[in-house]
């Protein structure tokens, strides 16, 4: 099978790991892991609407839109440079899903990366006690005969959802059109951090959580509430949509 495989696949056999955004990695030549599968959040069942903290037209405290260049995602100095580069990227990917800081650890099996063509390396991140498993697939040498090896990340099986991110997205949506804010936006009580379904390639997954806003009823002076779904895409990014 040629590398990289054509198209983005959700599942692949080991040593043929599909990757988004191939990178080039100097071969210099790690991972602690554990057993157990992450548990997904149960659908909340709308136990009661709680006014989203972002409903008062302000950004969420602690929300981080982008992590590039921040110290949390810089490679650690010392040790295996290849390992430290990949661990830094895994931290960035996890924090991008969370959109806020937290207690975060990243590791790979045996504290090393097998940097040979077509190798599959198994790593994990743990954010505030929630574990996400990752597969790091090595590609081939680019250009051929050089010591630069491509690599990429297979999408994880779960996404990380945080209340801060959801409420920030609601605030952005509510204030997207100047002069016409969404009225009285509210949300389910969203956990501070929880693992949820991740979207299939090119699709979004419904987390089961809902927000609402107050809309004018058509041809009526009254009002009605309309749902906003909390979704995650195939990269684990959170969106709030009708």
What would you say about this model in short?
Helix content is 12%, strand content 34%. By secondary structure, it is mainly beta.
Can you walk through the features of this model?
This protein is mainly beta. The protein folds into two domains: 20-39 and 62-156, no CATH class; 161-241, no CATH class. It contains two helices and twelve strands, in the order E-E-H-E-E-E-E-E-H-E-E-E-E-E. The strands form three sheets. A five-stranded antiparallel sheet has the order 1-6-5-4-3, with helices on one face. A five-stranded antiparallel sheet has the order 2-8-10-11-12, with helices on one face. It is elongated, with a radius of gyration of 20 Å. Mean pLDDT is 77; it is low at 1-57.
Total count of strands = 12
- The helix-strand sequence is EEHEEEEEHEEEEE
Structural class: mainly beta
User: Helix tally?
Assistant: 2
Shape: elongated
- Nearest-integer average pLDDT: 77
Task: Give the assembly state of these chains.
Answer: single chain
- The portion of residues assigned to helices is 10-25%
Radius of gyration of CA atoms, rounded to a whole number: 20 Å
Q: In which order are the strands of the major sheet placed? A: 1-6-5-4-3
Q: Which spans have pLDDT < 50 for at least 5 consecutive residues? A: 1-57
Classify the beta-strand content into a percent band: 25-35%
- What is the terminal-to-terminal distance? 41 Å
Q: Report the sheet with the most strands, covering strand number, pairing sense and barrel closure.
A: 5 strands, antiparallel
Number of domains: 2
């Amino acid at each position: 099978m040629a590398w990289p495989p054509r198209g983005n696949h959700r599942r692949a056999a080991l040593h043929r790991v599909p990757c988004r955004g191939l990178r080039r990695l100097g071969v210099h030549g790690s991972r602690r892991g554990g057993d157990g599968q992450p548990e997904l959040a149960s659908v909340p069942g709308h136990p009661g609407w709680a006014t989203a903290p972002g409903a008062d037209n302000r950004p969420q405290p602690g929300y981080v839109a982008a992590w590039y260049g921040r110290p949390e995602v810089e490679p650690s100095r010392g040790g295996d440079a290849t390992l430290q580069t990949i661990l830094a990227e895994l931290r960035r990917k996890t924090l991008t899903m969370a959109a806020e800081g937290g207690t975060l650890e990243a590791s790979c099996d045996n504290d090393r990366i097998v940097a040979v063509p077509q190798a599959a390396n198994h790593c994990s991140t743990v954010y505030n006690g929630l574990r996400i498993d990752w597969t790091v697939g090595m590609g081939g040498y680019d250009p051929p005969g050089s010591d630069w090896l491509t690599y990429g990340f297979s999408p994880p099986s779960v996404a990380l959802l945080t209340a801060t991110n959801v409420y920030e997205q609601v605030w952005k949506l509510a204030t997207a059109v100047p002069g016409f804010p969404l009225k009285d936006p509210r949300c389910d009580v969203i956990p501070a951090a929880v693992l949820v379904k991740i979207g299939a390639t090119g699709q979004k997954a419904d987390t089961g959580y809902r927000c609402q806003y107050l809309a004018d009823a058509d041809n009526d002076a009254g009002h009605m509430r309309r749902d906003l779904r909390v979704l995650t895409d195939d990269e684990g990014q959170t969106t709030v949509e009708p």
